[in-house]
Design goal:
The protein is about 0% helix and about 45% strand. A hairpin with a 6-residue loop joins strand 5 and strand 6 (about 60). It contains no helices and eleven strands. By secondary structure, the chain is an all-beta fold.
Length: about 120
């Protein structure tokens, strides 16, 4: 079982930047694909970004591409989401997730509890 703990959420103004972190327990993180999802009130959870085990392959949703950057540091068992040029539409609870595969697929196996991001206009 992998435990994931997100941090870095908070209240920011539109246009500001924020960096989320996700720390994974155990020793499997470096061989696992990882990703970020988000869920706004009254909406379904949606994909934000994902990264392969090595960091060489990265994927983004259309709504965040060019503004958000996903990265990872396998030596620290940590994944990041750099959020730039935020908008009120980015307001949501952000969840970290990892897979048991090295490459990104649609299957995610472990989830964190999430961190709240609120962007005011």
């Amino acid at each position: 079982q992998v435990q994931l703990v997100e941090s870095g959420g908070g209240l920011v103004q539109a246009g500001d930047s924020l960096r989320l972190s996700c720390v994974a327990s155990g020793d499997t993180f470096r061989n696992s694909a990882a990703g970020w999802f988000r869920q706004a009130p009254g909406k379904e959870r949606e994909f934000v970004a994902a990264i392969s085990w090595s960091g060489r392959s990265r994927y983004y949703s259309d709504s965040v591409r060019g503004r958000f950057t996903i990265s990872r540091d396998n030596d620290k068992n940590t994944m990041y989401l750099q959020m730039d040029v935020t908008t009120p539409e980015d307001t949501a609870r952000y969840y970290c997730t990892t897979a048991t595969t090295q490459w990104v697929t649609s299957k995610w196996d472990f989830w964190g509890q999430g961190t709240q991001v609120t962007v005011s206009s």
